[in-house]
Amino acid sequence: MILNVMLRFLLEILTLIAIGFWGYQRGIGTIMSFLLGIGVPLIIAVIWGVFFAPASTVNIPLWLKFGFEVVIFGLAFVALVSMRFSTSAYIFGLAVLINQTLLYVFKQ
Question: CA–CA separation, 40 vs 105, rounded Å?
Answer without folding.
Answer: 32
